[in-house]
Write a structure and sequence with these properties.
The complex is a heterodimer of chains A (436) and B (160). With 436 residues, chain A is an alpha+beta fold. In chain A, 21% of the residues lie in helices and 38% in strands. Chain A has 10 helices and 22 strands. Chain A is globular, with a radius of gyration of 27 Å. Chain A starts with a helix and ends in an 8-residue tail after the last strand. Chain B has 2 domains: 79 residues, Orthogonal Bundle (Rna Polymerase Sigma Factor, Chain: A); 79 residues, Orthogonal Bundle (Arc Repressor Mutant, subunit A). Chain B is mostly helical and 160 residues long. Classes of the chains: A alpha+beta (436), B mainly alpha (160). At the A-B interface, helix 1, helix 2, helix 3, helix 4 and strand 1 of A face helix 1, helix 2, helix 3, helix 4 and helix 6 of B.
């Protein structure tokens, strides 16, 4: 059983309370000559540039808005500048609405071709600058369908979420990044402060774009990177933000799928509907060792990868019954999910539900654990996006999820290479098959 | 603008534990984190005139502190904080192995936000300032991280 309060208590129990501050030692140390004064500045840049570049799409959103306001419209003559067109395209109404896409560390691999497609985090944001209401709809794209659909509403009087129970009481009004707020204050004042320039033209995802490059005094004083916003030439709207360091792109950046302003009342700021979570409260499991043919009887259509893979022998087969409860309350309805689990190798990875094979004196150099079920409603399946048939969702570190002929298959391998090999080698267990 | 030694001392005395806990996942332990905090405040003292008041004093010291902590990872080349957080882990995993493992598997971005909230004891607003993001994004990221952790922990009861 894991609820929000319990989780927070456990997180807080991980920190160290045995603190012994010693200010005098700090003062003594400060009196010593700084050994690497230059490094201090350089590393501070590193931290800020990371934070500004990678962390959150809203940073990018702010960058876009800031780019709009920082480029002088008179650069190319009145009434015809890139920025004037961009500002006109965006509009100046009080509600900002944007859809931002950013890469995750997961991707979908086509098992036949090896082609990879990134799983993408999608955030749709509405921000009412007058009432300080902010709504964020988060989901995941790239796969067959998203299992992650969060609706979050922040207001000065509380925070409400669709899938999590951290409803809060009165709180400070939510706010966008300072640069974005500057946009809402009007670009005229921002024009007086900043510098930016049209950095050139190019193409992004098949669109002809104009690149705007800029740095701001408040944001980039320590940064080694420069931020570039790609404006689609045909619509004058931003479609991508990228970051550069020493002239080279440091990441693909963030895609702006759409951005606009809406009139007052043009967005829904009602409380998100609570969405029932899947039976998510784990009660227990019962693992029973079985013979290989029994796996196909327990889960018709179940797979294996043969008697061995890359020198790792099939070391155990188990039927695992997982019991979950709709809520933490003991009286709530229970569900039992029948699953099977196969272990190859004997180095006891202990990552899933059945008891791993005993570690022997000379453990194998690696492992593959395959967990299979007829439904994803067990706590193995990730809360992200389902892979399409023929592809596998993977973190690139030996963990993968795929759906094959109605079976949900999770594979944990000691290497990515082994994971891919196992995923491609899956074949139905024949009831006449022996373990050899 | 600058700040004063008195303000820094007050911040240090009030928030030493938060800084130590917040840096420990990156430094690889509480003892190393302790040293990093000492060094960070020493540098803040030396450079107090450079504080420009554009954000909070604590946010400024946190940036210095992360820089100090990241020195461990640099080996002569530039290291980004998310790269450092890819390796960040609970300093004493034996306290709660299941949770430590679940935290380790979070994507760096979510891991960073969780550590800043629950180890560094930073508010949404402080995390937003430090990371230069909105509070809403902090909340959304944290909610998703909590969801992932809860899902991972619901596997508890597994024989190990």
């Amino acid at each position: 059983m894991t609820d929000h309060r319990k989780l927070i208590e456990r997180l807080e129990a991980l920190v160290d309370r045995d603190n012994q501050p010693d200010w005098k030692a700090v003062v003594r140390r400060a009196g010593e000559a700084p050994a690497h004064a230059a490094d201090v500045v350089r590393a501070r840049r590193s931290t800020r540039s990371y934070l500004g570049r990678r962390l959150v799409p809203v940073v990018a959103l702010a960058a876009v808005a800031f780019a709009f306001v920082m480029v002088a419209p008179w650069q190319h003559g009145p009434g015809s500048t890139v920025m004037e067109r961009a500002l006109a395209a965006l509009g100046d109404r009080p509600i900002l609405h944007a859809v931002l896409l950013s890469d995750t560390s997961w991707s979908f691999v086509d098992l036949a071709s090896g082609e990879e497609k990134p799983m993408v985090d999608r955030q749709e944001i509405w921000y009412d600058s007058e009432r300080h209401f902010e709504r964020i709809w988060s989901t995941t794209e790239g796969g067959l369908r998203s299992r992650h659909n969060d609706d979050l509403l922040l207001t000065p009087t509380g925070t409400w979420a669709s899938t999590w129970d951290d409803v809060e009481g009165p709180r400070p009004a939510p706010s966008l990044d300072p640069a974005l707020e500057e946009f809402f204050d009007g670009y005229r004042s921002a024009l007086e402060k900043g510098t930016a320039h049209v950095a050139g033209t190019g193409a992004v995802d098949g669109h002809d774009v104009t690149w705007i490059e800029f740095a701001t005094k408040s944001r980039c004083a320590y940064d080694v990177c420069r931020e570039r916003v790609a404006l689609d030439k045909s619509t004058s709207l931003p479609i991508q933000i990228a970051w550069y360091r020493k002239g080279a792109a440091v990441s693909r950046g963030i895609d702006v799928a759409s951005i606009e302003t809406l009139p007052a009342g043009g967005a829904d700021f009602s409380k998100p509907k609570r969405v029932a979570r899947d039976s998510n409260f784990f009660v227990g499991r019962q693992a029973t060792p079985i013979a290989l043919p029994g796996a196909a009887e327990e889960l018709p259509g179940a797979f294996w990868v043969g008697k061995s893979i890359s020198g790792l022998d099939l070391s155990s087969v188990s039927r695992v019954d997982l019991t979950t409860r709709e809520t933490p309350e003991p009286t709530s309805a229970e569900s039992i999910y029948k699953t099977i689990e196969l272990h190859y190798g004997n180095d006891s990875p202990a990552v899933l539900f059945s008891k791993p094979p005993e570690t022997v004196e000379e453990p194998s150099r690696g492992h593959v654990v395959i967990h299979e079920a007829a439904t994803p409603s067990i706590d193995v399946w990730p809360v992200s996006s389902d892979p399409a048939p023929g592809s596998m969702l993977t973190n690139g570190k030996g963990e993968g999820y795929l759906m094959k002929d109605g079976i949900y298959v999770a594979i944990y391998a000691s290497s990515q290479e082994l994971l891919l090999k196992a995923a491609r080698a899956l074949e139905p267990i024949q009831t006449s098959t022996g373990t050899g | 603008m600058g700040t004063s030694a008195k303000e820094l001392e007050l911040l240090y005395r009030n928030r030493f534990g938060a800084f130590r806990n917040g840096l420990a996942p990156v430094c690889g332990g509480f003892e190393r984190a302790h040293d990093a905090v000492q060094e960070a405040f020493a540098r803040a003292l030396r450079e107090q005139d450079r504080f420009r008041g554009e954000g909070s004093l604590e946010g400024w010291v946190w940036r210095i502190a992360f820089r100090v902590a990241l020195d461990e990872h640099r080996n002569g080349h530039e290291v980004l904080l998310d790269e450092a957080f890819e390796q960040a882990a609970v300093p004493q995993p034996e306290r709660d192995r299941a949770l430590a493992e679940a935290l380790k598997r979070l994507p760096p971005r979510r891991k960073l936000i969780v550590f800043l909230r629950h180890f560094a004891d930073l508010s949404y607003a402080e995390i937003a300032e430090l990371c230069e993001i909105s509070e809403g994004t902090v909340a959304a990221t944290l909610a998703r991280a909590h969801e992932e952790l809860a899902t991972a922990l619901s596997r508890e009861g597994v024989e190990r």
